[in-house]
Amino acid sequence: MKLTNESVARRLDEQAGLQRLPSDRLQLFQMRGFCPPDLCAELIALIERDRRPSTIADDNGDAYFRTSETCDLAADLPAVQRIETMLTQLCGIPPMFGEPLQGQRYAEGQEFKPHTDYFTPGGRDFERFCSLSGNRTWTFMIYLNDVAAGGATRFKMAGKTFQPEEGKLLCWNNRLPGGGVNAATLHHGMKVRKGVKYVITKWYREKPWRG
Ligand SMILES: O=C(O)CCC(=O)C(=O)O
Ligand SMILES: [Fe+2]
After folding, report:
1. What confidence category does residue 124 fall into, taking pLDDT thresholds of 50, 70 and 90?
2. Closest ligand 1 atom to Cα of 199
3. Which ligand has the shortest distance to the CA of 111?
4. Atom 4, ligand 1: which residue's CA is nearest?
5. Mean pLDDT of the chain
6. What is the ipTM of this complex?
7. Measured between alpha carbons, how far is 139 from 180 in angstroms, rounded to an integer?
8. Ligand 2 mean position to 115 CA, how many Å?
9. Do 117 and 26 touch, CB atoms closer than 8 A?
């Protein structure tokens, strides 16, 4: 199957319950209640079990750039298989293009400062992270819980902020229609002010994933 840059957005446009953000700068969709509460709870338990401090490809020398904790979620776990199947049905991207599912946990005061999910062509980390699998194409992110205060995801250039909410999916195309990277996807996982925030993230690549 040849996966074109445009075919994913077209498919997402046809999915019931998925809303497309009105914007000519980026392709971004949201869906409330995508992940059922029991599955959100299972995924949170897995993140609690396996979390470790997050790393970041290029933190611009700022140790506080991404202060959350991360974990890779093993593909053979039943909860992971369940959400992966739901994502594949939604977007139609063959699973071979996907990186392993990741979980993030933000405690009070933690954040992920403004960044893009793609690697900047020609940037310091590009060769290291993209030579085998190509750059990131689509991001699918799911909030697993309601957060008492803070923890929104802000797309400054697109002028849009999303509040965390149990089961809510956000997804966006990191590329422009012509194939280059889209700087308007810049986003900020804002500080959690009260409570704990859990998300999972699925990133897809231009070529089949070779980790
Ligand atoms: O937690 C958020 O709101 C954003 C997370 C994010 O941008 C990422 O993991 O790449
Ligand atoms: Fe991100």
Report:
1. confident
2. 1
3. 1
4. 189
5. 92
6. 0.99
7. 15
8. 6
9. no
Closest by CA to 66, choosing from 74, 57, 76, is 57
Residues with CB under 6 Å of ligand 1 are 104, 112, 117, 141, 153, 187, 189, 199, 201
- In CATH terms, the fold of domain 5-17+27-205 is Jelly Rolls (2.60.120)
From the CA of 9, how far away is ligand 1's center (Å)? 21
**AA identity, residue 202:** K
pLDDT in tens, 163-204: 999 999 999 999 998 889 999 999 999 999 999 999 999 999
Condensed to tens digits (0 to 9), the pLDDT of residues 5-57 reads 789 999 999 999 999 999 989 999 999 999 999 999 999 999 999 877 766 66
Using the CB atoms, write b or e for 51-66: b if 16+ within 10 Å. Answer: beebebeeeeeeeebb
CA separation, residue 55 to residues 7, 162, 174, 192 (Å): 32, 24, 20, 19
Mean pLDDT along residues 113-132: 92
Continuous segment of H or E residues that includes residue 85: helix 78-91
Ligand 1, atom 6, residue with closest C-alpha: 189
For residue 53, how far is its CA from the centre of ligand 2 (angstroms)?
16
Q: Where are the domains of the chain?
A: 5-17+27-205
Q: Which ligand is the nearest neighbour of the Cα of 192?
A: 1
